[in-house]
Amino acid sequence: MIDKSVVTGKNVQIGQNVVIEKDVVIGDHVTINHQTVIKEGTIIGNYVQIEEFTVLGSAPFTNKKMVRKPHQKLPPLSIGSHVNIGSNCVIYKGTNISDGVLIGDLASIRENVNIGNHTIVGRNVIIEHHTNIGKNVTIQTSSYVTADMMIEDDVFIGPCFASANDKYMGAGNYEYQGPILKKGARIGSNATLLPGVIIGKGAIVGAGAVVTKNVEKKETVVGNPARKLNG
Amino acid sequence: MIDKSVVTGKNVQIGQNVVIEKDVVIGDHVTINHQTVIKEGTIIGNYVQIEEFTVLGSAPFTNKKMVRKPHQKLPPLSIGSHVNIGSNCVIYKGTNISDGVLIGDLASIRENVNIGNHTIVGRNVIIEHHTNIGKNVTIQTSSYVTADMMIEDDVFIGPCFASANDKYMGAGNYEYQGPILKKGARIGSNATLLPGVIIGKGAIVGAGAVVTKNVEKKETVVGNPARKLNG
Amino acid sequence: MIDKSVVTGKNVQIGQNVVIEKDVVIGDHVTINHQTVIKEGTIIGNYVQIEEFTVLGSAPFTNKKMVRKPHQKLPPLSIGSHVNIGSNCVIYKGTNISDGVLIGDLASIRENVNIGNHTIVGRNVIIEHHTNIGKNVTIQTSSYVTADMMIEDDVFIGPCFASANDKYMGAGNYEYQGPILKKGARIGSNATLLPGVIIGKGAIVGAGAVVTKNVEKKETVVGNPARKLNG
User: Fold this and answer.
1) What does the pLDDT look like over A153-163, one tens digit per residue?
2) Interface residue of A3, A22, A63, A213 to substitute, partner B, most B CBs within 10 Å
3) Cross-chain residue pair C86–B61, CB shorter than 8 Å
4) Does the ipTM exceed 0.90?
5) Closest partner residue to C37 among A35, A82, A156, by Cβ?
6) SS3 for A153?
7) Is the Cβ–Cβ distance between B80 and B115 less than 8 Å?
8) CB-based contacts of C191: which residues, under 8 Å, 6+ apart?
């Protein structure tokens, strides 16, 4: 079930019922647990660990109603060194995972995403396409990172975060823009960020806040709609 | 691992480690990727694509505490033509998926659900039993569609939508009714709809709104609790 | 694919492509469906049913950025009798699931968790480590139970519940404490509970409420921030 063209480094451990398609490249000291699928052309660095029921290198698909068709020609999924990927994850081709990243169970990451060094993607986090995530970022469990988002270094996102990128909710004026989170911004649990809002450097968004406009650097906002704390 | 009783059309591609149980019927030009499970009796149309680690045709299960016991005698899962189903999905028997539907990764759909033509069910969307979803509906990523909901044609539901169907929160007065979304209603990201609320034709619910009572047609509501915008 | 050291009771049914690692103990009348993985040392009681693509007995992993390193020496996962576990679940070692528990599809439960008899863990529910959950608790679909939470008996948690345990959002003062839910408390859909809040015996938190301080016993709170109803 491992294609003959697959290149593996030294000390690679592969579990049972694993499928590895053609032209996959696997570094040294990699552990691939049982029942995983590594799709064509995926590149895996050194000291990577992949848990059960995870598929790496998926291709996007579409239907008639979907307005924004995914690119069909995508480079392979590239995974750096010292990366841990949990169970039951789905990660697409055309994406780049840097060194030291941790991806929890049941996470899914679409195509054209970049994730910087040592960032944590929690369990059940879903990341859409065309999103850029910096270094040392924490995205906690069950958060949703919409398409076209920009998340700078050292951002902290609490669990169950929600974001959106379509101001017109499918009504047809397509200026997609996800929220922009500047360096060191911190977002509380279950907060909602509307399309295109900018959260300034070091700003804080309280748990459950619904952010409808930009937040200045170092400002703290809470409530629905979110307002400056004690402001 | 493919039961002898399985009927397959022409040009069917089946990946590695696939389990197909008895009496499954598969149409023409179907692609079933690695490591999927198709359970007994499931009916799959033409030009269907199914990704890895997805199980089709599951049976509901229960425990002592669960008040509402699922039906044990259910017809097979029926999937129309030109349907795409992502990775790590769980779809139950007794459900009907119409032509052209797209179902994203990590979605789960219970028994006694109908989904109309060309509807999109996003990644990580969970749909409960006894729910009816129209045509050309979009349900975005990580949304939760409770049991006994009615979603008419052309409805748009943003990501992280939450709904409920039990007014008494398990306290024992069982008049279950999920929200009712009329034709073309649009629901923003992370909005919450209480049991039984009716969202009128073309009405808009803002992101993060908590809707406790009915919304008139074409009305826009925002906030917690949701109130008419500028009203 | 079943290790020779595995001990199985009578009337055990095992599906196709199942991996059972060494020193697993399986009781009587157990059904293990296709494509599951049972990891080393896991203990399974009688009359247990496990659905497809579920992994039992996972070990926690970490990266450089993660502040709180998981224990590496954990006892095996222990599953009582009459337990049902859905598809695509991930349950860690060092956890104890009592008799009669139901765990829905796509749920994930970390290490050092205790779950009492007959409790329901809904689909897509994510439970963090070091959490104690009582008897006859209902945790509905897509809810997030943070680390260091205490949930007493007979608590009801509606769908899409969010919680947090880090008051400082990753900023470095580590007094982690998840919310504490006293006996019979009821939490509405998509409510948010801040770190360490105590929800009193029989208290009610409305759907979409953002709870920033303790709620007295039998009190009802709603809104953002949550306030006493009619108070």
Assistant:
1) 999 999 999 99
2) A63
3) yes
4) yes
5) A35
6) coil
7) no
8) C158, C161, C162, C205, C206, C207, C208, C209, C210, C211
- Whether A169 sits inside 8 A of B49 (CB atoms) is no
Closest CB to A64 among B118, B190, B204: B118
> Tell me, what DSSP letter sits at residue B231?
-
Query: Which whole-number Å values give the CA distances from C192 to A120, B144, B196, C127, C134, in the listed order?
Result: 22, 16, 22, 15, 20
**Cα–Cα distances in angstroms (integers) from residue C22 to residues C19, C51, C59, in the given order:** 10, 20, 15
Sheet hosting strand A180-181, strand order edge to edge:
A7-8, A25-26, A43-44, A78-79, A96-97, A113-115, A131-133, A150-151, A180-181, A198-199
Cβ-contact A224, A210 below 8 angstroms: yes
Q: Whole-prediction pTM value?
A: 0.97
Please give the domain boundaries of chain B with CATH numbers for all domains.
Answer: 1-151 (2.160.10.10)
The answer to whether C204 and C185 have CB atoms below 8 angstroms apart is yes
- What are the Cα distances from residue B163, in Å, to A227, B25, B127, C204? 26, 35, 10, 17
Distance from CA of C96 to the nearest CA of B (A): 18
| Distance, CA of A124 to CA of A130 (rounded, Å) | 19
CA distance A2 to A18: 8
Q: Nearest CB to A192: which of B87, B88, B207?
A: B207
- Min distance C193 CA to chain A CA atoms (Å): 8
A29, amino acid identity: H
Report residues of chain A scoring pLDDT below 70.
173-174, 231
Q: For the segment B119-145, what is each residue's pLDDT rounded down to a tens digit?
A: 999 999 999 999 999 999 999 999 999
